[in-house]
What we know:
With 245 residues, this protein is of the alpha/beta class. It contains 4 helices and 15 strands. The strands form 3 sheets. A 7-stranded mixed beta sheet has the order 6-3-2-1-13-14-15, with helices on one face. The chain has a 6-stranded mixed beta sheet with strand order 7-8-9-10-12-11.
Amino acid sequence: MRILLTSDLHYKLRQYDWLFQSAAQFDAVVVAGDHIDVVSAVPGEVQVAALSTTLVRLSTLVPVLACSGNHDLNARNAAGEKTADWLDALRGPRLAVDGDSVCIAGTLFTVCPWWDGPHAQAEVQRQIEAAALRRGKAEAGRWVWVYHAPPEGGLSWTGRRHYGDPLLPALIARHRPSAVLCGHIHEAPFKAGGAWAERIGATWLFNAGRQIGDVPARIEIDLAAGTATWVSLAGVETLVLEDLQ
């Protein structure tokens, strides 16, 4: 199975156009949050309309997994915490969004929302617990999470400080997923002390970063070959995924 991971496209529609051109090469495309750009001159509701159409169209070409990031929050849940409810309306057989766990080609994918407070954080934990039961029933061999913010480490390093997710390390330690596909920290792969891939125990974690231009920074993961390749303006790097479970 071949997975394309990108994130933090921030309403760069030409980078989404590139995804359309490249989708056929992959078995799944992951966009790990921050579809919207909150500092854009384009109104948020216009961005939502355009991106909704784009993600649905992309899913006609390849299964798509799209989680929310901190830029995507357009509403509030019952607890008053920010949420990205526009993604819920896009859910379909080939488009998995926040809260979904789907099996594609023998791999279980769990798509987690950005959590803005304790209510949403508890929902993420319940979602992971439910997906763990599915994995325990051997519905799928590998388990991959789509989770916008990486934990503290190379993937969360901006070059000045870390912006790691405080919940993720405990979830990984408890459930031991095969991989976690992240984003959020644009600079991490490009900075000394940063990284595009790292491990916590047996779990692999990835963050492609963000770059200028019409082509997104991306990671191409080949589960059958056990490799991951980071492709960006900085060049091409390939890593052998030892002991990928």
